[in-house]
Amino acid sequence: MAHSPVILLGLQLLNAIFIGILGGIGMLYFQDLMPGQAGSATTLYTNTSRVGWIIAGSVAGIVAEIWNYHAVFWFCDGDDYRHSVLLTAD
């Protein structure tokens, strides 16, 4: 836990850099999928990210309402495992 505003500010800066790098990688991936249409690819990436946030927030709220907030993390763990199995299956 950060006990000082200076530490918290430093951690937020590192978090912002991390999120910026991940966002940039995702955007570049979409632009590689749509060569010559950088604007459309960026818009598609931005809009699908926002839709994903809305759906994720709704699902997290439903899971937390039915069970509890710890169940949200277990639900995400199970979903991640399921997707990793599906992606590696031949």
From TrEMBL:
GO molecular function, one term: carbohydrate:proton symporter activity
Entry-linked InterPro entries: MFS_trans_sf (IPR036259)
Sequence intervals crossing the membrane: 6-30, 51-70
Key words, A-Z: Cell membrane, Membrane, Sugar transport, Transmembrane, Transmembrane helix, Transport
Main subcellular location of this protein, as a coarse class: membrane
Entry GO CC: plasma membrane
Domain of life: Bacteria
Protein name: Sugar efflux transporter B
Source species of the chain: Escherichia coli
The gene coding this protein: setB_1
